[in-house]
Specification:
Bound molecules: 5-O-phosphono-beta-D-ribofuranosylamine
Largest sheet: 7 strands, mixed
Distance between the termini: 29 Å
Number of strands: 9
Number of helices: 6
Strand content: 15-25%
Shape: globular
Structural class: alpha/beta
Order of helices and strands: HEHEHEHEEHEEHEE
């Protein structure tokens, strides 16, 4: 069953939205959400952080703030199915409205019950420079090498293909002469820090309607 067939639209929520965060790395995206919550810019509670990688610094960040953490190590599973089933088992233990992929470098096969409730952020303008092999610095290097004049970030609903689900919002940055992958990544990440909380707020307000590949933002 596809995301479109299963998604019926979230209604406006009362009180904080309950999030689960999936990550594999440094957890800067997690930190941004924590900061936005602490500064009163996002009415959310992070129920659990699930890491695919034992060495992820994101786990330490979560622990520092007393957020429960779970390790589901990708390398311990022989296939995507077993890995994904374990993630779902862990998510089911918590009260989760929305699952946030935050630097999560794995495919999570999303069960029907979570379809339309999993978001991802990609550091480029999907459908360009996206898909299985585009992550980390490689994305920004490919952008610079291509000669395009703009890049940006994309928040989208996840489906069962890398960087493929319906796009919620995008923010654009210029690519400038002399850019390095590091300088471009920094510029893009600063937009990510605005885009992801904005998408979460829209979901919380029940303002995201999926129709095929398109997401309408309701007034
Ligand atoms: C960001 O570039 C984001 O777009 C991608 O992962 C990076 C953040 O990872 N999905 P992290 O939060 O620093 O671990």
């Amino acid at each position: 069953m596809s995301l479109t067939e299963t998604f019926s639209g979230a209604s406006e929520m009362q009180g904080p939205i309950h999030l689960a965060v999936l990550l594999s790395g440094t957890g800067r995206t997690l930190q941004n959400l924590i900061d936005k919550i602490e500064n009163g810019l996002l009415d959310a509670k992070i129920e659990v952080v699930v890491s695919s990688n034992a060495g992820a610094y994101g786990l330490q960040r979560a622990k520092k703030y007393g957020i429960p953490t779970v390790l589901v190590e990708k390398t311990k599973y022989k296939d995507v199915k077993g890995f994904s089933n374990e993630i779902t088992t862990q998510l089911d233990k918590y009260n989760v409205d929305l699952v946030i992929m935050a630097g999560f470098n794995c495919l999570y096969r999303i069960p029907n019950k979570y379809m339309g409730r999993v978001m991802n952020i990609h550091p480029a303008l999907i459908p360009s420079f996206s898909g299985k092999n585009y992550w980390g610095e490689k994305v920004h290097k490919a952008v610079i090498d291509s000669g395009v004049k703009v890049s940006g970030c994309t928040v989208h609903f996840a489906d069962n293909t890398y960087d493929n689900g319906p796009i919620i919002l995008q923010r654009v940055v210029p690519v400038v002469n002399g850019d390095t992958p590091e300088s471009l990544a920094k510029r893009v990440f600063s937009e990510e820090c605005q885009a992801y909380p904005e998408a979460i707020r829209l979901f919380q307000q029940g303002r995201l309607k999926i129709e095929g590949k398109k997401v309408s933002i309701l007034p």
